[in-house]
Amino acid sequence: MERKNRTWLCSVLFMDIVDYSKLPDDQQMLVKQNFSTLVVDALKGLPDEDSIKLDTGDGMAMCYLGAPEDILYVAIGLRDAFIQVKSICATCYSVRLGINLGPIKIMEDINGNRNTIGDGINSAQRIMSFAEPNQLLVSRTYYDVVSCLSKENPKLFSYIGVHNDKHVREHVVYEVVSSEDGGLQEAMIREEAITAAAVVSPQQIGLDLDETIRKTVQEELAQIIGPMAGVLLKRALKKSSNVDQLFEILAKEIPTEAEKARFLARKDSLH
C-alpha cells in the first residue's frame, strides 16, 4: 500500500439500513449502535491491514484486500443476524447488502485515515441498492471469481437478472440464497474447504507450468492487484494451453494500461 496512486482489485461489501433517515433521532441512535455492534463482531476475524471500513451514516462500506470468499461468509452471517433482529419486533430495522469485485484507489482522508475511491465501491453501492430488506446481492464480477473456487459455490447463488442504475448502466445481479438454519457454522465449514481448494498446485492446473515460473507469475501479478493474484492465476491456468495465453488472460484482470503493459513485458523473460 506504500506505492502512491496504485489501483487495487478488491471485494467491497456495502450495507444500508432501510429507511434510516425516517427514524426519530433517539431511535436512529439505538439502531446504529446495534448495527455497529453486529458489524464489529462479524468483522473481527478479518485482518485489519486488509480491511478498510467506511462509515456512511446510514450504513457502512468495507473494502477487503484479502481472499474474496472471506467477505462472502461475513456477509452471510450479517444477513442472518439482521433477519433475526427483524424477527424480534415489527419496528426493528432491516439492512440491504451488496458485494462487488472491482478497482479502487486508497487515499488518506482529512483525519489521516485510509479511505477509498473508485468504481469498485460505487458499483457495490449500486448492487446494494437493488436489494430488498435483508437481502444479499452480488455483482457478476464477484460471482465469476467466487463461483470458480469450488464446485459447491455456485449453489450459494441465484441469478436475479439485469438491473439498470440511475445512470442507465447495466448490472448483472445474483442473490446469495438464504440458508435453512442460519448457516453460520455451515458457512465456516464451507469456507475452510474453499480456502484449501484455492491453493494452486501443478496437479490442479490445465497448463503444465513449471512451479518456479508459476510462483514468479503470481508474484508479479500480486505486485499489481494484490492478494487476489493466487485466485485469478488458478482460474487462468485452467483456461490456458501456453504461457502467452496465460499472460493474455491475466492481463485482462489488470485495470490500468500502464500496469498491464509492465506485466506483459515480463512474459518474454519466462520463455
Explain what the structure shows.
With 271 residues, the protein is α+β, with helices and mostly antiparallel strands. The chain folds into two domains: 7-197, Alpha-Beta Plaits; 211-270, no CATH class. 43% of the residues lie in helices and 22% in strands. The chain contains nine helices and eight strands. It has helices at 25-43, 68-88, 119-129, 140-147, 184-197, 211-225, 229-239, 243-251, 257-265, and strands at residues 7-17, 51-55, 59-64, 95-108, 114-117, 136-139, 157-164, 170-176. Strands 1, 2, 3, 4, 5, 6, 7 and 8 form an eight-stranded mixed beta sheet that branches. Helix 2 runs antiparallel to helix 5 (184-197) and helix 7 crosses helix 8 (243-251). The longest helix has 21 residues, at 68-88. It is elongated and about 65 Å long. Residues 180-205 have low confidence and may be disordered.
List its salient traits.
9 helices, 271 residues, elongated, 2 domains, 8-stranded mixed β-sheet, Alpha-Beta Plaits, alpha+beta, single chain
Summed up:
This protein is α+β, with helices and mostly antiparallel strands.
Which helices and strands appear, and what pairs or packs with what?
Blueprint: E1 7-17, H1 25-43, E2 51-55, E3 59-64, H2 68-88, E4 95-108, E5 114-117, H3 119-129, E6 136-139, H4 140-147, E7 157-164, E8 170-176, H5 184-197, H6 211-225, H7 229-239, H8 243-251, H9 257-265
Parallel strand pairs: 4-6
Antiparallel strand pairs: 1-3, 1-4, 2-3, 4-5, 6-8, 7-8
Helix pairs in contact: 1-2, 2-5, 7-8
